[in-house]
Predict the structure.
Amino acid sequence: MDIILWVIIIVLFIGSFAGIVFPIVPSVLFLWGGFLTYHFGINGSELNTLFWVAMIIFTVLLISADLIANSYFVKKFGGSKAGEMAAAVAVIIGSFITPPFGIIYIPFLAVFIVEMLMKRSAKEALNASIGSLIGFLGGSVAKVVLQFVMIVWFFVSVIF
């Protein structure tokens, strides 16, 4: 039975990385599914309070990574609040239109169009769009690192 549960845990952890490419996939739920499967299915006393508190903090960071990175870089590259909102919405829409590439070019185009509608110059709109692209990539890197840290921490807690 433990082997089946470990397979489920590993599949959940691997599945969590699908959320990087497909933002509609709930990466956090996959990670927590793995943690809770271990806790309730294999050993309920192995993971200590420090682990659970750290995972809650990492979860908050993981959920907010995209929003923080997108807002920061669109703003840093001269985008408006409307451009920031367009980027956030377009990431979700883009994941449905042409996954996985839609999450890259749909926000880029959406920010450009919104900034042009806001009477920005083409150069300013392009800069904000580039900020959206960098924000998405930065958020994705942050999510990969955070998820990797969470998974490694889990295995270190379980093994040692």
User: Anything to note?
Assistant: The chain has a mean pLDDT of 91. Residues 122-159 form the longest helix (38 residues). The chain is about 85% helix and 0% strand.
